[in-house]
Amino acid sequence: MAMDYAAALSYIEGLGKFGIHLGMERIEALAALMGHPERTIRTIHITGTNGKGSVASYLAHILTAAGKKTGCYTSPHFVRYNERMTIDGQDISDEDFAAVAEETKAAVDRFLAEGGEQPTQFEVLTAMGFLYFARQKVDYAVIEVGMGGLWDSTNIIVPEVSVITNVTLEHTERLGKTVEAIAEQKAGIIKDGVPVVTAASPDALKVIEKTAALHHAPLYVYGSDFTGHSLSASMAEQVFSYASHGVTRTVTIHLAGAHQVVNGSLALKVAELLAEKDPAITEKAILAGMARTTWPGRLELIRHRPDVILDGAHNPSGVTVLRKALDDYYPRARRYFVFGMMGDKDVSTVADILFRDDDVIYTVLADQGARAEKPEKLAQRLHRNAIPMDDLKAAYEKAVSQAGPDAVVIVCGSLYLIGTFKGMGLDQVTV
Length: 431
Known about the structure:
Protein-Tyrosine Phosphatase, Chain A; 2 domains; 8-stranded mixed sheet
């Protein structure tokens, strides 16, 4: 009997108990049993601490605007696993999800029967993504790593271009205790002769430069080989100038935050490199794709008066970006936060960066998983006058009702919280 969507979801969710186990042996064996679908598609590979998703979205929109059938593999999802595998902006259908899950499970069962170790959930999803894109005969697939790079299950591809957005401290228990050590993991996606595009800062850049040289991979660095400069910015629209090889162009995007000038510039550089081999990727398509790009859950404005913003930032570098955007766009507005985090994150540092003394903070449970910090404990860890609330909807409604039309409400602290918020449909209702 063929696997239906409910059975496929049950299978995938059941794999969660195997946790995170970095390494390439399982995914390489699985891909081999499936006939190496990843080798039949052209890919762009993206790693980095922050900005991976928005760079992936820019590139997917550019390629679609160029008339290319374009897959995009990202994580995590907000509401449904289907969000992780899209083609031209459309999530994989329930039927296709079930079909590739069934085929991948058959390969997993063969692998286990031959004495192999149980693949993780992310490895199975990655194999499913590659199979789906191959079956659909996409022209390109934009692939975002899950964690790190070197030992990430997506790293079986040899892409057209590799992207390392930036490198800061994250997942130190798995990737290393220093920026340099983490950069070695990120630089692990660099392949022989494959161009690399990065906006990494000096400490990480040294590692990336060394690895690129080792692989004879051309390296393009933001700030020296190409640059972006903001011309105008609001929550709704940004215009920036992009310069590369002595040519400057004006670009319009609709993702907010100064960091999106950097992320957008990275995507533009990648598009330039792809266009050298593919004449369909024209200037017109590149600019159209940039202008059409959306990326939910990152400085996502969902209503006005009061403005309500959703942001999944969950590490110090991510909330630094959020704080700067709030200071730029809402310098004098009263701020109300609905805040939930995972308990294993650097809550104190995040709080020190993000909150002002007079901000109103309601702490909530980010999701129902074991890692989510309880609202009471989270309020204590913030070392501020935070108010714990057991109900996310009630906390949101209270924040909006208290805020008034000229204030701003920020729902933030975790991508899981944004997923819970969207899953409850709170982004679709007027409070």
